[in-house]
Amino acid sequence: MKKRLLVTTATLCGLATLSGCGLIPVKTSNEIDPPKTVTYRSDQPSKEVQAGKVQEQTAKRELYLIDRNGYVVPQTFQLPKSTSLAKQALEYLVKDGPVTDQLPNGFQAVLPPNTEVLGVETQKDGTVIADFSSEFKQYHDEDELKVFQAVTWTLTQFENVKKVKIRVNGKNLTAMPINKAQIGEGLTRQDGINFDKGDIVDVMNSRPVTLYYVSQDEMGETYYVPVTRRISNAEKDSYTAIVNELVKGPSEYSELVSDFGSDTKLVAEPKYQNGKLTLNFNEGIYGNIAKNMINDDVLQPLVLSLTEQKGVTSIEIQVDGKLTALNQQGKPLSQPVSRPKDVNTKEL
Known about the structure:
Blueprint: H1 9-12, E1 49-50, E2 53-54, E3 58-66, E4 72-80, H2 85-91, E5 117-122, E6 127-132, H3 144-155, E7 163-168, E8 171-172, E9 206-216, E10 222-232, H4 238-248, E11 271-273, E12 276-281, E13 293-294, H5 296-306, E14 314-319, E15 326-327, E16 337-338
Parallel strand pairs: 6-7, 12-14, 13-15
Antiparallel strand pairs: 1-2, 3-4, 5-6, 7-8, 9-10, 11-12, 14-16
């Protein structure tokens, strides 16, 4: 039986800060430690002014941490301005490191204590090489996949980073130190995160997709967890397959939930044009049919999951061919909804 989230509307309204059509317009960070031959644009860091004094400049960054259920989850933090953004992000993944006092309830950093980031090298082809001290090898064997997933997904938040290679004391790793998980020539988001433990699909005749499901921390606050699930190559339309998997819900073995109604269906094939994906649903997409509202915990996983697909930057949501839906705040979803820049933002 599919698990659904049972929370009040007031609690749901306490999700990530929203604007516009319910999610934040996309603006991808380009800041990273660039090679001399490549020039990247730079986001303007925030500058807080309080009591006539200029406070420390900060910028939002996603850190992939481990939640209480063992999932690798993005959390967005305001980090101090740094001249080495990739190196700084990795340093915030170290247990007992600078992130310690800022960890949300039930979360922990992933890299072993005392791990040093010896350097971060960026190549012109979009590959980043992260060099760690020997303490990097001192993780628990059950955390091996979590370690390289957290490193890979944290670094690939930067627009120009496509692949991540790992070194220890200057030596390239082709496999992880303990369980020998293969790294090969580098890791990308296509290598997956939080692998689904549900139905086994023929690996040779399937492909991975990233789906976002819902979880709650110890205080009942909602956040979104990326999960890699394989879908059959017989499913030619990845967009429809993703919607169907979201409606199906997470594996019964997981600690995750979904709030999609089981009667939610697409009434037409998805249409893609110039980055916009148009989805036409039946009324099953509504959490409150009387008010034509789509709940945040339906809308956000839908947008997050589909914008993981190459080229998709926004989602237009129709119901029976009309732009009549409202988001949970009562605002019309008359314009395409973009991926939020900051997933699971924590205001600290």
